[in-house]
Design brief:
The protein is an all-alpha fold and 347 residues long. The chain is built from 15 helices and no strands. The radius of gyration is 21 Å and the shape is globular.
Length: 347
């Protein structure tokens, strides 16, 4: 047992929830951003402005989603070069065979392929053959055996969430908005989760509301501590910047969580806000304004005649209501002494 532990340490194979559930998942989201997400944005620009070059760029970028995710995961797992490059084939196989739930298949299968590849890396004199063979062989074999089932399970779970949201828009609007919003602020990837589950439609709209509530909420309620820089870094960047403060004093998270519990059902019940763009956009919020752009992309894809009511609902849910509601709740918390000056200060 001691020998195995020593071997795993030497190979930097760390079997832990943090490495696989946080590091790998967050990296997978970056791979998605650099392929499917930017591809979707390019494609939208190309479609709206008649720019074929942008549409072509979007198509090429989106087609590389599987390999991009796999390489990003391998990078997070500190895979050596030969393993990292071999993961391109693994990501392509897992994503293709995983269908609608391909991203989850990529995550699980790439982890196994990368760790097996790391285990044999530089252990033989023919490393140039052995390492790619083991990495690709493991990944493709698992893709053939498991990817369709993993993809089907993820897709079914996502469909269940979307069906429940259509059936109970009030309750599920609250639930989806709060949970996805919390995931966005935690050191995991809400975008990767939404994409892995294919979370679109009304449930996707609730997810957008929850993410915007966290980002805009923290940006506005911490303005007195962090100024314009904090407003931009949290409002257009990520509310994850507040995690160290949340760990020190969890109560500061409540205004943003309560805000998402309010804006979620408003999005689903009042405005019937749907995300029918790329599912990854459901978990992005106002990060680069990807969430609202995704909603707009969905309108375009569905051929909807966009009215002032559409824009009003999107602006209110994405920016105005999170800012006003979270600020009001946080001011109440400050007067009650639950949030003190400096509690939301970013380092």
């Amino acid at each position: 047992m001691a020998g195995l532990r020593t071997f795993l340490q030497r190979k930097d194979i760390e079997i832990s929830a943090r490495r696989y559930g946080i590091d790998a998942l967050s990296a997978m989201a970056q791979g998605l951003f650099a392929s499917l997400l930017i591809g979707t944005i390019f494609n939208t620009l190309g479609t709206q402005f008649g720019l074929d070059f942008f549409s072509q760029m979007g198509a090429f970028a989106s087609a590389m989603a599987g390999p991009a995710m796999a390489v990003a995961i391998g990078y997070a797992l500190k895979a050596p070069p030969l393993v990292l490059f071999s993961l391109l084939a693994v990501g392509n196989a897992a994503n293709s065979l995983g269908g609608a739930g391909g991203p989850l298949a990529v995550l699980i299968i790439t982890i196994f392929a990368a760790e097996f590849g790391k285990a044999v890396s530089k252990e033989t004199r023919v490393d140039i053959l052995v390492t790619p063979a083991v990495t690709i062989g493991t990944g493709v074999l698992l893709s053939l055996l498991c990817a369709p089932a993993i993809g089907a399970a993820a897709s079914a779970f996502g469909q269940l969430i979307m069906w429940a949201t259509e059936l109970q828009p009030l309750l599920m609007g609250i639930l989806v908005s709060v949970l996805v919003g919390i995931a966005l602020t935690l050191p995991i990837s809400s975008a990767a989760i939404c994409h892995a589950l294919g979370l679109v439609g009304l449930a996707g709209g609730a997810a957008v509301a929850g993410c915007c509530a966290q980002m805009v909420g923290f940006a506005v309620m911490s303005y007195r501590e962090n100024g314009v820089g904090g407003l931009i870094s949290q409002g257009l960047g990520t509310s994850m910047l507040q995690m160290s403060n949340i760990v020190k004093k969890p109560v500061i998270w409540l205004p943003a969580i309560l805000t998402s519990a309010i804006t979620g059902p408003i999005a689903t019940c009042l405005f019937r806000l749907e995300m029918n763009g790329a599912a990854i956009s459901s978990g992005m919020g106002t990060c680069g304004m990807v969430g609202p752009i995704g909603v707009y992309t969905g309108w375009v894809n569905d051929g909807i005649s966009i009215t002032a009511g559409h824009w009003l609902g999107l602006i209110l849910i994405s920016i105005v209501l999170p800012a006003l509601i979270c600020l009001a709740i946080s001011e109440f918390f400050r007067k009650a002494g639950w949030i003190c000056e400096g509690d939301l200060k970013l380092d």
